[in-house]
Design brief:
The structure is a single chain. The model has no long low-confidence stretch (mean pLDDT about 85). By secondary structure, this protein is mainly α. About 40% of the residues are buried. Helices cover about 85% and strands about 0% of the residues. The radius of gyration is 18 Å and the shape is elongated.
């Protein structure tokens, strides 16, 4: 496998995902909800004592368990199956690249885009908490962010697997939504 080929494919996939309306909608929704939950968790700080990252981390857990797997699964499910339907995957594989290079490039590009979107939401949330003086229990918040990023990578991997397994993008997205519902019920 050639590193230059993988980085070229990853940068293409990153640019492509940043132009995807669904991805941008997911990123915006996550950022807005994270900021709203951060603001709400700090509203009772004067009455109930110190508030900070620990309280916000507790309020963000449900958001993370619902939104992050949905983002990873649907973005991954659209990756290979949509290109197979358009015919661009066959054209790409006809070039002097191997299948593992294409898979690694796609995974790395989508991972960077997904992790950047999540870090944007968590970063805005952390800025609001720190701006209001809630520097209590930062470790819990950092742990939540780390585990959320791992959850995003795991569900992205599952989404790419579903995309490689299915023949159409509609089937891949349908399977991804079914997997998301299963994860939501099992994770609860």
């Amino acid at each position: 496998m050639k590193l230059k080929t993988i980085t070229t494919l990853a940068s293409y996939e990153l640019r492509s995902s940043l132009r995807n309306r669904w991805f941008l909608l997911y990123a915006l929704a996550f950022a807005v909800l994270a900021v709203a939950l951060s603001s709400l968790s700090l509203t009772g700080a004067g009455m109930f004592g110190f508030a900070g990252f620990g309280r916000t981390a507790a309020s963000l857990i449900n958001l993370v368990l619902l939104i992050v797997p949905l983002m990873g699964l649907t973005i991954g499910a659209q990756s290979l199956a949509a290109e197979r339907e358009k015919g661009t995957l066959a054209y790409l594989l006809a070039q002097p690249v191997s299948r593992p290079e294409v898979l690694c490039g796609k995974f790395i590009g989508l991972s960077v885009a997904l992790l950047a979107a999540l870090l944007l939401g968590f970063g805005l949330s952390a800025a609001i908490i720190a701006g209001q003086g809630g520097m209590v229990e930062v470790e819990q918040y950092v742990a939540l962010v780390g585990f959320s990023l791992l959850l995003a990578l795991a569900t992205l991997s599952l989404g790419i697997f579903l995309s490689a397994w299915s023949r159409s993008s509609a089937l891949a997205v349908g399977l991804a939504l079914f997997a998301w519902l299963t994860l939501v019920f099992v994770g609860d």
